[in-house]
Specification:
With about 280 residues, the chain is mainly alpha-helical. Among the domains are: about 100 residues, Helix Hairpins, CATH 1.10.287.1080; about 50 residues. It has 13 helices and no strands. Helix 9 packs across helix 11 and helix 12 packs across helix 13. It is extended. About 10% of the residues are buried.
């Protein structure tokens, strides 16, 4: 055991890097891991950070940020052993990127508001990565992102070069058009076409959310939570009146649903879904 590390009153990032180095040598589990084997851990830890943010729990956020930092150090250590780069190189890279992409702070460029900052950021990013056009930029958006989030980003890039409706009315017209096309696909029994039209319909909904500056991923997550709470209330009411839900008619269940909806309407928290 490295007693120097085991009994410190205060730890630093350098200590974390050293601990990870030791674990990769001495711990049977840690030394067997690869980028691929712990890939899912990174995703899970990131979502746990998001949940901590949403719940407003500062202590939990501190813990989950530590777990994400561990993942960064873990992946960096694997590459250190290969001789490709070290954690210090990761830190240097992000520091240089931040300085380069904030010329209004570390250079002589003027940015009067947040929108100008973002435009400068995107311009510099395109130059750095050799992005030739908007389509190229769209293709660089990770396919592993949730589809709603990815579609929002794609639409935003299109809108930035003028490929957009004049107002939300055009987006609503497109939504209605996609609904009709989906209806026709259902009537014709074309399963492949139905799948495609469902995608177009969802894409249109995301377009409306972008106009309203509402984050579709967060909105849908809120709708899912709301559904679960209302369904739970329906189950409780059904139990109280001795109703077997599996044998009840849809009209009977819908009546309970409306009662649950009315009962919980004033209690439902209003979430802030605006994209900053």
């Amino acid at each position: 055991m490295d007693y120097t590390l085991a009994f410190k009153d205060k730890y630093t990032v350098e200590d974390l890097v050293k601990i990870m180095e030791i674990l990769r040598v001495r711990c049977p589990w840690d030394k067997e891991q690869t980028h691929e084997s712990i890939r899912k851990n990174f995703i899970e830890e990131t979502y746990e950070v998001v949940e901590a943010i949403d719940t407003g729990d500062a202590d939990l956020l501190k813990e989950e940020l530590g777990d994400v930092l561990l993942q960064v150090v873990f992946h960096s250590q694997i590459e250190t052993e290969k001789g490709t780069f070290r954690f210090e190189d990761v830190v240097e890279g992000i520091c240089r990127k931040l300085i380069l992409r904030h010329p209004h702070i570390f250079g002589n460029v003027i940015a009067g508001n947040a929108e100008e900052v973002l435009r400068n950021w995107e311009t510099i990013k395109k130059a750095e990565k050799g992005i030739e056009n908007t389509a190229h930029s769209m293709r660089r958006i990770p396919k592993m992102l949730p589809a709603l989030m990815r579609s929002y980003k794609v639409q935003k890039k299109a809108a930035d070069v003028g490929f957009d409706w004049d107002d939300v009315g055009g987006a609503f017209d497109k939504l209605y058009e996609e609904i009709e096309e989906l209806k026709r696909a259902v009537e014709e029994g074309d399963l492949a076409q139905q799948e495609e039209e469902i995608g177009d319909l969802l894409f249109s909904v995301v377009n409306i959310s972008r106009f309203l500056k509402v984050e579709p991923e967060k909105s849908l997550a809120g709708a899912v939570d709301k559904f679960i709470e209302r369904f739970s209330a329906v189950e409780e009411m059904a139990k109280e009146i001795g109703m077997d839900m599996t044998k009840a008619t849809i009209e009977e269940l819908d009546e309970l649903w409306e009662r649950a909806k009315e009962k919980g309407f004033q209690q439902e928290p209003k979430s802030n879904c605006e994209i900053k």
